[in-house]
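Protocol step 4 of 6.
Sequence for Large ribosomal RNA subunit accumulation protein YceD (Pleionea litopenaei) entered exactly as in the expression construct, tag removed. Do not edit the line below.
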Amino acid sequence: MQKAEVTWSINPFKLAENAAETHREIPIKQLSRLKAYLSDDEGVLNASVVGWIDEDRRKLMRCTIDGEVTMACQTSFQPVSVSIASEVVFYPVLSEEAIASAPEEYEAFLYDEEELNLLTLIEDEIILSLPLSVNAPESPKQQSFGPKIIEKEGDKPNPFAVLAQLKQNSED
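Step 5 output, structure tokens:
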């Protein structure tokens, strides 16, 4: 028997109005754009979305994501486990103008469809929460390439020797 991928979609306004919540374990294999940043696609991420209305009557969604992904170390190219723990408050709006006037503490996005695909929204948030570079604990702190150049203190000419020579010439 084959499992079909089921979309995870909601109407964010109805979710907030009903103070409803939804939870899902998301296999990393389903997140095609995220896989490009990872060294393997094994494991699952846990996501929960809770709707509510704030004191200014804004319809909001609090999204919490946690789990582990595997990325490649930037110096040794070995797999490194990276913990994902993200929490964001999404603010669905109906116009571009509303995005510009949204409070900074909310992540405003344009909602212009019948249903919102939560997998796409959550995948975007996971990608944004990934570290820019990953280093394994046993990796060297700085990788160097090419021949090592060692300069001795005594071998360097004094850059102020020319000035001292000019001063001596002017006094003579």
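Step 6, annotate. Residues 118-129 form the longest helix (12 residues).
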